[in-house]
Amino acid sequence: MDAAAKNKPIDQGVRLRVQDLIAHYVDVIDQDRLEEWPDLFTENCRYLITSAESYEEKLLHGVIYADSRGMLRDRVSALREANIYEAQRYRHLVGPIWVEAESEMTVMARSHFLVIRIMHNGETMLFACGVYRDRIDISGTPYRFIERLVVTDSHKIDTLLAIPI
Amino acid sequence: MDAAAKNKPIDQGVRLRVQDLIAHYVDVIDQDRLEEWPDLFTENCRYLITSAESYEEKLLHGVIYADSRGMLRDRVSALREANIYEAQRYRHLVGPIWVEAESEMTVMARSHFLVIRIMHNGETMLFACGVYRDRIDISGTPYRFIERLVVTDSHKIDTLLAIPI
Amino acid sequence: MDAAAKNKPIDQGVRLRVQDLIAHYVDVIDQDRLEEWPDLFTENCRYLITSAESYEEKLLHGVIYADSRGMLRDRVSALREANIYEAQRYRHLVGPIWVEAESEMTVMARSHFLVIRIMHNGETMLFACGVYRDRIDISGTPYRFIERLVVTDSHKIDTLLAIPI
Fold first, then answer.
1. Environment class of C145 (CB within 10 Å of its CB; exposed 0-12, middle 13-18, buried 19+)
2. Which is deepest, A35, B81, B143, C85, by most CB within 10 Å?
3. Does residue A14 belong to the interface with chain B, where contact is any CB pair within 8 Å?
């Protein structure tokens, strides 16, 4: 970590592009444009859904784990074959968002999220909430996730959990 | 649509004023200042509450429909006569918000929303969630909605639905 | 109140630092870093949790009340002794946020909030929603709350309410 960079205030333009990346992410999921989802990550990346308890114990296993864009693509293919989106949709709410400098090439971001699940019959329920913990590549545009840890507050992970959060 | 304008980055000042309009909208509803609500629209406008299913099938009918500021004013008068606010309140959460250029005079915006309903006895419930799809007049200040489509995720629209979402 | 200041547009830098203060506030609560919470207030301050009904009747009593940073510190000590965080966590979602000029030294802010409570067994529930009504000292950095009124929509305040909202 670059201590000098870390203490510099974040440029407003960087902040806006980070917000846009985070917004874009929930957009492709909620609007069922999952094929665009892997493109929001760098080629070598880490995506993990885990619980707050596991995160605090530094146990970085989780319900969903991927360490390359290819693995994310495989997951999307599997979801399409299983027709998961027939049965349910998500609605993400996000905010607030923090952005912190890390180096000339990367920033760290955290954001609070809430996911509502809407079943095909119209039933809605509070599905998950927690924190996104991101490391983001800002060396080119568009910005991309190098790492996105989805830390859910509850350890009760629904066995239906298959769509990325 | 103006392709050149669409590709231009959104000016930061425009973006902030759009965010302010969207914030103002939920403020007048949640704080029971409904009389100010029609003024957030242009004289000729479109306001529609519909479900995601209907929206995807391009069926632009809905539970509430208005195509002029006068119709919005009539709705407020009707709500006041029915004393709807005696029985319930809303709390809107909004975020994230996207803004896209359309022309020199207009922008498109989308935002995720969640509405909690609070009954007079103190009971609270998740009432609705979905996306606001807006076309906004930015040719003068304050900015105003030319079109606001309220696309709810669930097709189960409560028959009590009378307050604008 | 300074009428000239009130009509001036808010500087973008001020707006961002206000957003950061509001974000920081929910961060220290949700991440169980409560010891940092009193430092977000000025030495002489007012912190109050009250219901929308009481607020509208100008009854500024509430479930939690403090008028100095010392009282906030005492509350944190009491919570630690009671091991409240063993039993429950919160997740705050916040948005939208409004900022209004008041004087050269202060701004007013309002923001919509939603709190999810996560019990130790993993159960989650919609715990509270409402509006933060803030008066903020912007004369130095970091910005601090002079007054934070937490106005909850429901008058049903859970008897377990002990953690700051």
1. buried
2. B143
3. no
